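Format is sequence with structure; example below:
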Amino acid sequence: MNSKEKIQLHKGMDCVRRMDFEKAIEYFQIVTASNPDMPEAWNNLGVAFYGLGRIDEALESYDRSIALDPSNLDALRNRAFLLRNQKRLPEALETYDTVLEKGGDAMDLESTAVVLTAMGRLEEALNCLYLAREKLSLKRLEDEIEMVQKKILERDGQSGDKAKGEPDGGAERKE
């Protein structure tokens, strides 16, 4: 990346921070036109498109970024978040799985649990939350664990503390 591209990229990111997405798109498109092989420019272009509700263009930009750099966790996370918000849950789950395979963190496990919960895969969601809690102790993780445990009890027509136990053995998520 040359200095002019770097300046345009930073100007675009400043526009995103100010929520001036139209102007950000202009800057990012200048960069992608001059250097179409820059994954961070495509990812940031996707963020700006998403900010304007231009979902298809955002997804195309994230996909382009990922094609250029399959290890780009930012683009993968952005793609998964977009798909989750669009209720395209199997695609979101597949993308979160990729994030986790490439070194995702506790927040990625939590996001995966959100998708699994929405898909009704409660035990797997609970396992993801336990794994996230092992990596990062947050009150909200405890709250989410409790909420998923209650959903399991409600689904199974149970009451009491049957779902409160920790998972037996490994907390691996089933595919």
Observations:
- Residues 105-175 form one domain.
